[in-house]
Amino acid sequence: MAFDWLKTGLGKLEDIKKSALKFKSKEFLEAVVAASYMVASADGNVDSDEKTKLLNFLKIDDQLSIYSPDDIITMFNKYKDLYEFDADVANASALKAIGKFSDNKEKSNYLIRLVCSIGAADGSFDQNEKKVVSKICTELNIEPSQFEL
Asked: What's the pTM?
């Protein structure tokens, strides 16, 4: 029978909305994960508090909560592997993902607030982490002094 897929749930409006949201925000998810990894690794150690903070944030964010923890971990590991291979290549890749939002001030400011929080998740927002956030600000055409950096 034609359109049986509608009856099986594949055509449910909520499923369609989720698919549309995933398509719309996948690039922002990548920017968030890339920036978070940059900041978390700035002190030479990505600790569990920083990973947990990122995962908890992504669970509550309206646009990004549609992704499973497995999607996030896969993307996080992509940047981990890049940084282990070559930090310069990894930085270039991360900044490219982040820079896609330089014309969206709302998302850019949101991203900076998030990575500041990730940087402080281990109890210390040190100078190396602040320096990385400043670099991200510059990529997003935001004055770092807006965030007291």
From this structure: 0.78
- For residue range 90-135, list pLDDT tens digits in order: 999 999 999 999 998 888 888 888 888 877 777 777 888 889 989 9
Q: What number of residues does the chain have?
A: 149
Looking at domain 26-147, its CATH superfamily turns out to be TerB-like (1.10.3680.10)
Tokens of 99: 């820079």
